[in-house]
Amino acid sequence: MLRLFPFNSTRFLSRGLKNTCSNSFQHKDLIIRKTEKRFPKPKNTADVPFGKIYSDHLLNVDWVEGKGWGKPEIRPFEGFQLHPAAKVLHSSLELFEGAKAYYGIDGKIRIFRPQLNMERMRRSAERCAFPDFDAKEAVKLLKELVKMDSDWVPRCAGSSLYLRPTMIGTEPTLGLAESKEVKLFMICSPVGQNYFKSEGTGVRLLADTSFVRSWPGGVGSYKMGCNYAPTIYVQQLAAKRDCHQVMWLQGKEQLVTEAGAMNLFMFWKNEQGEEELITAPLDTGLLLPGITRRSILELAREWGEFKVSERSFTMADVVKAIDENRVYEFFSSGTAAVVGGISEIQYVDRSIGVDRTLRLPTMASKHKVMQRMYDTITGIQYGRIQKDGWAEIVEL
Amino acid sequence: MLRLFPFNSTRFLSRGLKNTCSNSFQHKDLIIRKTEKRFPKPKNTADVPFGKIYSDHLLNVDWVEGKGWGKPEIRPFEGFQLHPAAKVLHSSLELFEGAKAYYGIDGKIRIFRPQLNMERMRRSAERCAFPDFDAKEAVKLLKELVKMDSDWVPRCAGSSLYLRPTMIGTEPTLGLAESKEVKLFMICSPVGQNYFKSEGTGVRLLADTSFVRSWPGGVGSYKMGCNYAPTIYVQQLAAKRDCHQVMWLQGKEQLVTEAGAMNLFMFWKNEQGEEELITAPLDTGLLLPGITRRSILELAREWGEFKVSERSFTMADVVKAIDENRVYEFFSSGTAAVVGGISEIQYVDRSIGVDRTLRLPTMASKHKVMQRMYDTITGIQYGRIQKDGWAEIVEL
């Protein structure tokens, strides 16, 4: 497979290879300006939809070419005044991260592996021609923000405070060039339990080969805003077919890549008769290097109970395995939903007149790989399970 | 070639096929709020760089799901208050257009084919899951804005007032979904003569196969902001090699597509010994349907002096033709620069160790196809040449 993608564009990037950045903003410079009017909090977070309510404060730090980073500031949550020609509004110079803070059974607040988010953010920033920063300093600032709005971390089981670090190009010029002014900000949003309204019955995916999310030589492996705009229209087509999400296939081979907001895993009996947990590899540059994805792979390898593979697999592999009853579980992973069982794939290939509904036995699986992953990861997130370095406590 | 791209995603879209939209904003509802403090104008527009100065007013019209379009308003140029979770800042729900107003030799102000911009904008809006509007009403509003700021249309030869209609998703929610709030705005920027600082000597392009702009099943044929963010980093690599722009190749075949801000034309003697003006076709969905591109094709077909082709051609075709001295002119087309002669292509294919500088005789061509195109199109734009429907006069 790999020879089809000889140019993994990641090899041109250097950030994340080195761990420090000498010209970063610094946590020690943090300015805090407390709000005077606090927003009302939702009564029952379990029912709060994803990303619609925000906490009292945000973190902001601006960068200007020649001057460097300014002082980070935690300030009342309010709108930004943006110039109508700001680059983010025209050439999509923007990137984001997604993390979560959890209220643990011991009353402590934890963020799940935030250092990985900030390292990924540096990598996205390089591809966006944005300035570098020190990931450790960014994590400290994120923790300060969560500390400031700690009463926004829902106490309700399964709920959490979603954290959205973002960078945007704010220079007010229309030419196609790098942004000489950049804003980094972080906002917090309390979220309920279910990213999808599909609890128990599983998620349905539309895999329509007419639409392609990423490609060799593109930016599919960076968390840049530009990867998402083209998916909304296709998402609407999926919704018309009563699907929750799109499953993105790539190339003539119809490689299984990811689901836009989530990575994809299959637990199956492979062609060699082995039990295997498989997910698409990162070296193609076609999919986002998810932090939940990485955590699942690390846990599965620690368990050592079955084969764990990061390698390309195709829609044909999936169809054949379903037809031969060799697929046990097919599930997604991501910060928003942790893991989500997939119950159905609507596979559409207009070039050969295929429109087929594939049913998956995920929700009834006796192997419970997905369920154990969910229990382990949420266990770490809510402090029921200890795992060194995976859950950073926010000191209050 | 075409069988490689059986799924031109344009076929799923309907806007632009029908000419009207019953739920549009209306020019008759226009509200005008004049500025009280006017900005200083540049003394000599010829030296003004692209997209850095803006006129006194902007046009704004907002849409909300369920309510529809509000009343369009021309108002003092000022920043927007945007919610930090506005969809445009996270999932790049944004698109734009580029047009120009010209001060003619007869003292009249003309906009070049604005109806085509607005039809293209409707098409981009559909792909962004944005609401539809009536292109004719949008043209009327654009003209009103130019009329309001008519003293910003530079009098200086070769200069013009660049017009930037834009749509952004403003709904303040983080979920990956369509924006239930949308802002359409138009801003104006006086611009000098030269988009590139290369007058006379020609533009140099970097064609590096490691980076790919668009792909079958993607949105390369829509003027969405998301197409541009991934190009900035590559543009910086090009600048390091003293190139002005990137020439984007696609696929294993290395199809010549476009140059990011511009379409590409080659005037050559083809393999059959015919003089031919060739440009990449639109039905692959890989390139932007430029209005200058379309105008050049229409003019060339009217002239009837040589073969005019919209068909795929490859980098190998170009290299072979250069080696056999069959390329007469290679040039770009776009609103910003009209046409721009290309003097050099730095062709890099790391997979086979190629790094070759290809020199093009464009600037010394005796055929002067590009020069005649420039003279004709700018002649129409500045009122020296009459061509029905190509230059809409702004009534003052």
UniProtKB/TrEMBL annotation, chains A, B:
Catalytic activity, EC: 2.6.1.42
Q: Which domain of life is it from?
A: Eukaryota
User: Which cofactors must be present for this protein to function?
Assistant: pyridoxal 5'-phosphate
Reactions mediated catalytically: L-valine + 2-oxoglutarate = 3-methyl-2-oxobutanoate + L-glutamate; L-leucine + 2-oxoglutarate = 4-methyl-2-oxopentanoate + L-glutamate; L-isoleucine + 2-oxoglutarate = (S)-3-methyl-2-oxopentanoate + L-glutamate
Name the InterPro entries on file.
Aminotrans_IV, Aminotrans_IV_CS, Aminotransferase-like, B_amino_transII, BCAT-like_C, BCAT-like_N, BCAT_family
Per the similarity annotation, which family is this?
Belongs to the class-IV pyridoxal-phosphate-dependent aminotransferase family.
Instruction: Tell me what this protein is called.
Output: Branched-chain-amino-acid aminotransferase
Species of provenance = Caenorhabditis auriculariae
